[in-house]
């Protein structure tokens, strides 16, 4: 396991407690594509799916192996697993805040990963591949959790990574739940939600912001520079002079920004959670 | 609202400098933010990235500009007139005589207060008023005539200086009456009585209620080889005063007395047996009061140097008064021409024979013959050429220039041992040299002066040069003081005579020197109080200039008002409601607000 101070002892200790809360959250209104939430004693066969590391080997269908020379596991009606896709925004803008938004994002992703895998659902973790591209890895079972944590720990938050454009370039074939963890500084949120909805995804939006973004302190004249622009020139940036009016105007814009996300989320029936310095609002 | 001065407007030039400094304050730091997403959205509606937007939102800049404005207005002396001054022509007369040096309340003299009130008054007049400013002490001097420039009028008022001269505003009021312009308003700032005849006027009473003691006179003499000092001290205040009296002899304290003087009383002081034999005595009141200039008075004693002169005449008031001008002469008069050879032991320095010849010529004294037939005076060779009628004479003695006619005179060939006094238009037949009607010189150790005509036979005694001539001749012949007087009041004149040289230097109490290339001088620059040192050739003398006694009494006498349009106002009340303090307090308030905002930021 890669050492990362994101996933501390306290994090792991809190997993069990938070898992129950998260389970209730995931169950409420979401079926993860399952036919049913309940796990009964029915053995009605439902479907096959390809074996992934961690699956219970007793479920391997040897007949299918004999035919296809590949391992497949049987899925029963009540056990049809949910597919959860987790998208983490790995851009430079996530490296602000106390604690860092990136830390908050990784912990949220870790928490969801734990709950998902503990529930025997499938986790697909998407990672930054290039500016507008994502790669993904699937995880299943409890063994998959440590691997998912490793992958999250290695996430490089830098540059001007456009998560939402990358999401729209992803091929999504099966219904499931898409969890997007970001600060949502984008004009393409609605477009992305529209895409995901079309791909039969139920959507959870987790916004992580810092207190400084909610209420910036500007005392004097400054040139504001975007963290995602690597080598800003003299022409880049915006001049701002600290004043009461400036604060007022920014607050107005911030509130409008939040209301817009809430409206879009409502429109696409997405769950919206906002965290400021890691604290749910 | 009016403003006392306009020069503080220059401070408004600081405002653009402050603005430029704010604009140039290019200390914009770079501040990284997670994303400009929200900022860009905000700025889309506002164009807040232009430099002057800094100014719009910079409350501190606005407050600092406001402070500059408020302090500038405060320095300009804003005020509002409470008076009612609408005249087209305003004559402002300010008394700057000696009594205006009296201190009133707020430690200001009457003159200082008069200048302040006058400046305030000028501001209340309309802008098209023509101002005439006159200062008045022993004479009236017009400083500004018919000018509508208020600032110039105020400047002239402020430039009026205090003097030690006796006087009042009567000359100035006469001058104002002579202006005879329509709608003239005369305003007088004074502490003494003023009479208006045909003018509309206002008197600003500056008398106040000061407390003053003065030394009104001092004299000294010798008795039993010690000095006696007599002085008069007056208490002009309303309460009894006990004070020390210092007596100085040649600048050193030689006696201290202690006197109690009742209110409004003059006490005569008599101090004798003072061990001092010098020339200059001074009496000083050792008490602070509201007019310090009259607390000391000097007396130059010339008693020991006085010469006895005998005038032998039936009657000649011109000559008698002219000789008496010389304070160094103790003049005696007789019509008896007998027994002059017995006068030698009676201490006379000079005999003046005015139209009368002695029966016997004195042997040791200096002699002056005026209008006498001197052909019988064989001892000195002063026989006239003849007696002439209707002769034109010129005074050539001591820089004199007067020419006059004389009905009858003896004319002389000027002796080689003498210098001519009067030259005539008659000439000697042989040598064609002008004949003289008077000469002076020394013969056999005796000073001889001959004037060939009776002063009554010409109008020369009416000339200014007559007393100076007689003073000079008698001074030279009696070997007396070089000064016509040794104790005068400020503004008075003194005649100085240098017997043997044409150079007179006078040093005043402040050390300033006056030099005249002449052997006679009428000196009038006597405004400074104290001792003046005179040097005339090898001879030195001292005279004192004292505070005019008439100026010591403070207070406005009952003003004799002949015009029903004249009123007397108390000058301590101002005509202007001063707003300076309002602007200063507002500036302080804004400064406090600025400080609070700065701390909060």
Task: Summarize, please.
The complex is a heterodimer of chains A (281) and B (601). By secondary structure, chain A is an alpha/beta fold.
Primary descriptors:
heterodimer, A: alpha/beta, two-stranded antiparallel ribbon, 8 helices, 11 strands, B: 601 residues, 6-stranded mixed β-sheet
What does this structure look like?
The complex is a heterodimer of chains A (281) and B (601). With 281 residues, chain A is an alpha/beta fold. Chain A contains eight helices and eleven strands. In chain A, strands 5-4-3-6-7-10-11 form a seven-stranded mixed sheet, sandwiched between helices. A two-stranded antiparallel ribbon of chain A has the order 1-2. In chain A, helix 6 (189-198) links the parallel strand 6 and strand 7 (201-209). In chain A, helix 1 crosses helix 3 (101-118) and helix 3 (101-118) runs antiparallel to helix 4 (143-153). Chain A is elongated and about 75 Å long. Chain B has 601 residues and is α/β, with parallel strands linked by helices. Chain B has a nine-stranded mixed sheet with strand order 17-16-18-19-24-23-22-20-21, covered by helices on one side. In chain B, helix 8 (317-324) crosses helix 9. Mean pLDDT of chain B is 83; it is low at 556-565. The A-B interface holds A 92-97, 101, 183, 185-186, 210, 213, 216, 218-228, 232, 237-243, 245-246, 249-250, 252-254, 256-257 and B 25, 27-43, 45-46, 48-49, 53-54, 57-59, 601. Strand 8 of chain A pairs parallel with strand 2 of chain B, so a sheet runs across the interface.
């Amino acid at each position: 396991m890669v050492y990362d101070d994101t996933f501390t002892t306290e994090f792991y200790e809190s997993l069990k407690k938070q898992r129950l809360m998260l389970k209730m959250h995931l169950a409420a209104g979401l079926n993860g594509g399952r036919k049913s939430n309940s796990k009964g004693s029915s053995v009605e066969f439902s479907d096959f799916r390809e074996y992934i590391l961690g699956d219970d080997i007793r479920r391997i269908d040897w007949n299918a192996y004999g035919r296809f020379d590949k391992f497949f596991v049987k899925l029963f009606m009540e056990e049809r697993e949910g597919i959860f896709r987790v998208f983490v925004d790995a851009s430079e803008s996530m490296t602000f805040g106390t604690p860092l938004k990136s830390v908050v994002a990784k912990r949220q992703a870790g928490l969801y990963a734990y709950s998902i895998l503990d529930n025997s659902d499938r986790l697909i973790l998407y990672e930054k591949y290039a500016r507008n591209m994502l790669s993904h890895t699937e995880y299943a079972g409890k063994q998959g959790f440590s691997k998912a944590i490793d992958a999250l720990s290695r996430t490089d938050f830098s540059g001007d990574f456009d998560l939402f454009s990358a999401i729209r370039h992803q091929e999504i074939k099966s219904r499931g739940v898409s969890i997007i963890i970001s600060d949502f500084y984008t004009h393409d949120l609605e477009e992305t939600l529209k895409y995901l909805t079309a791909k039969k995804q139920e959507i959870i939006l987790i916004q992580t912001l810092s207190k400084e973004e909610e209420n910036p302190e500007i005392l004097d004249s400054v040139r504001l520079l975007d963290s995602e622009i690597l080598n800003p020139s003299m022409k880049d940036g915006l001049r701002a002079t600290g004043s009461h009016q400036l604060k007022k105007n920014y607050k107005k814009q911030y509130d409008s920004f939040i209301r817009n996300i809430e409206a879009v989320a409502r429109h696409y029936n997405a769950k919206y959670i906002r965290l400021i310095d890691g604290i749910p609002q | 609202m009016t403003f006392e001065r306009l020069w503080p407007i220059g401070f408004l030039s600081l405002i653009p400098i402050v603005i430029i400094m704010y604009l140039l304050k290019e200390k914009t730091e770079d501040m990284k933010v997670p994303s400009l997403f929200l900022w860009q959205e905000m700025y889309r509606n506002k164009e807040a990235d232009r430099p002057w937007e800094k100014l719009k939102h910079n409350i501190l800049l606005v407050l600092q500009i406001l402070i500059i404005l408020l302090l500038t207005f405060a320095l300009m002396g804003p005020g509002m007139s409470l008076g009612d001054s609408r005249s087209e022509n305003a004559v402002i007369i300010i008394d700057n005589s000696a009594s205006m040096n009296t201190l009133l309340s707020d430690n200001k003299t009457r003159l200082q207060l008069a200048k302040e009130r006058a400046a305030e008054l000028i501001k209340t007049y309309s802008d098209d008023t023509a101002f005439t400013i006159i200062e008045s002490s022993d004479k009236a001097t017009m400083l500004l005539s018919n000018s509508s420039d208020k600032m110039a009028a105020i400047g002239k008022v402020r430039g009026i200086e205090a003097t030690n001269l006796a006087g009042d505003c009567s000359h100035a009021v006469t001058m104002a009456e002579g202006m005879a312009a329509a709608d003239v308003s005369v305003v007088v700032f004074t502490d003494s009585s003023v009479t208006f005849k045909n003018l509309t006027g206002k008197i600003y009473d500056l008398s106040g209620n000061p407390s003053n003691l003065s030394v009104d006179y001092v004299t000294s003499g010798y008795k039993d080889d010690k000095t006696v000092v007599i002085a008069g001290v007056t208490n002009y205040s309303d309460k009894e005063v006990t004070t020390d009296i210092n007596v100085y002899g040649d600048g050193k304290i030689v006696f201290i007395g202690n006197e109690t003087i009742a209110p409004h009383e003059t006490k005569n002081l008599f101090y004798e047996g003072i061990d001092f034999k010098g020339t200059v005595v001074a009496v000083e009141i050792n008490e602070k009061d509201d007019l310090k200039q009259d607390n000391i008075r000097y007396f130059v004693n010339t008693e020991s140097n006085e010469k006895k002169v005998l005038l032998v005449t039936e009657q000649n008031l011109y000559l008698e008064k002219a000789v008496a001008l010389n304070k160094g002469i103790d003049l005696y008069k007789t019509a008896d021409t007998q027994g002059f050879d017995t006068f030698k032991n009676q201490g006379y320095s000079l005999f003046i024979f005015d139209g009368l010849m002695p029966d016997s010529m004195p042997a040791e004294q200096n002699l002056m013959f005026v209008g006498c037939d001197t052909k019988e005076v064989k001892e000195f060779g002063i026989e006239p050429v003849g007696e002439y009628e209707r002769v034109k004479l010129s005074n050539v003695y001591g820089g004199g220039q007067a020419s006059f006619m004389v009905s009858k005179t003896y004319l002389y060939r000027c002796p080689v041992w003498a210098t001519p006094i009067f030259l005539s238009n008659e000439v000697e037949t042989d040598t064609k040299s002008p004949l003289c009607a008077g000469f002076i010189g020394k013969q056999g150790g005796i000073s001889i002066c001959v004037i060939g005509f009776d002063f009554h036979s010409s109008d020369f005694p009416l000339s200014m040069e007559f007393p100076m001539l007689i003073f000079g001749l008698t001074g030279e012949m009696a070997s007396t003081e070089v000064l016509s007087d040794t104790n005068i009041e400020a503004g008075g004149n003194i005649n100085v005579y240098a017997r043997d040289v044409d150079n007179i230097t006078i040093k005043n109490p402040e050390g300033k020197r006056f030099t005249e290339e002449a052997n006679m001088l009428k000196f009038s620059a006597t405004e400074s109080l104290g001792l003046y040192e005179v040097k005339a050739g090898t001879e030195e003398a001292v005279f004192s200039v004292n505070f005019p006694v008439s100026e010591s009494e403070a207070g406005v006498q009952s003003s004799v008002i002949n015009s029903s349009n004249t009123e007397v106002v108390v000058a301590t009340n101002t005509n202007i409601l001063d707003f300076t303090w309002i602007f200063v307090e507002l500036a302080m308030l804004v400064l406090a607000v600025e400080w609070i905002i700065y701390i909060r930021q």
